[in-house]
């Protein structure tokens, strides 16, 4: 049996077990539904209160929430990143957010790489996946950089789409890590000071930073294409 087939069978088996647990263990079912509902509000204060409610298990719960939103929940990661910073301070929150987001991204990549497009299309939706694939076709590696630097872009579509390309896991993981790190540190630092009227300033910073990144990357892509054209 080929190695790829073994990986596919093992991964399908793990997913099947997780699905059965979700369906037939009431506490797990209700817990995941509640977590998804809380994240879906996009209310940072509510998310903070929810995570804190787990006491000593709060950090593990936050780690799980980041992976959950990475794989199945169309929720921007910045909601959890800000919550982590408000609970544990900016640098501890940044470490927690970055490591958990990297695990989530890696899982999405391997799910797509092992199970293929048909399965991924059912998780990430066909329309979103098509959009990401077109972006990859046009901008290649820069797609990862852009999406990782923008706080309002959900993790799962870009990670799934990357897994369907010929990109190596090493290249994907490096681009994700480099792109995610500065954004995570910045958002965590300001998120740790996010109270009252500071919220408006924080969201303004998000917008300014996001636009700056888009302009920079667009210029870089344009210059690279121009250099290749001149070389030919």
Summarize the structure.
It contains 12 helices and no strands.
The share of residues in extended strands comes to under 5%
Overall geometry comes to globular
Radius of gyration in whole Å, from Cα?
Answer: 19 Å
Q: CA-to-CA gap between the ends?
A: 45 Å
How many DSSP-defined strands?
A: 0
Give the class from helix and strand content and strand pairing: mainly alpha
The average pLDDT score comes to: 80
Can you put this structure into words, describing what you see?
The chain has 232 residues and is mainly alpha-helical. It contains twelve helices and no strands. Helix 3 crosses helix 5, helix 4 packs parallel to helix 6 and helix 9 packs antiparallel against helix 12. The protein is globular and about 60 Å long.
Question: Key features?
Answer:
232 residues; mainly alpha
Q: What is the element layout, followed by pairings?
A:
Layout: H1 3-24, H2 26-40, H3 44-52, H4 58-71, H5 78-88, H6 90-115, H7 117-124, H8 126-139, H9 142-149, H10 155-163, H11 169-191, H12 198-231
Helix pairs in contact: 1-2, 3-5, 4-6, 5-6, 5-11, 6-7, 6-10, 6-11, 7-8, 8-10, 9-10, 9-11, 9-12
């Amino acid at each position: 049996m080929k190695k790829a087939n073994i990986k596919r069978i093992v991964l399908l088996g793990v997913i099947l077990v997780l699905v059965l647990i979700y369906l037939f263990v009431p506490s797990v079912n209700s817990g995941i539904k509640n977590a998804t509902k809380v994240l879906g509000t996009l209310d940072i204060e509510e998310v903070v209160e929810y995570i804190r409610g787990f006491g000593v298990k709060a950090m593990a719960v936050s780690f799980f929430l980041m992976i959950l939103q990475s794989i199945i929940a169309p929720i921007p990661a910045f909601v959890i990143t800000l919550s982590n910073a408000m609970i544990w301070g900016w640098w501890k929150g940044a470490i927690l957010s970055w490591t958990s987001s990297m695990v989530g991204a890696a899982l999405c990549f391997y799910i797509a790489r092992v199970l293929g497009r048909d399965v991924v299309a059912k998780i990430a939706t066909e329309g979103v996946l098509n959009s990401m694939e077109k972006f990859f076709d046009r901008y290649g590696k820069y797609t990862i950089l852009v999406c990782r630097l923008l706080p309002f872009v959900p993790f799962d579509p870009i990670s799934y789409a990357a897994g369907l390309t010929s990109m190596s896991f090493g290249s994907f993981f490096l681009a994700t890590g480099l792109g995610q790190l500065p954004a995570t540190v910045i958002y965590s630092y300001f998120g740790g000071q996010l109270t009252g009227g500071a919220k408006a300033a924080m969201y303004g910073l998000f917008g300014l930073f996001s636009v700056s990144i888009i302009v920079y990357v667009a210029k870089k892509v344009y210059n690279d294409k121009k250099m290749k054209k001149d070389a030919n």
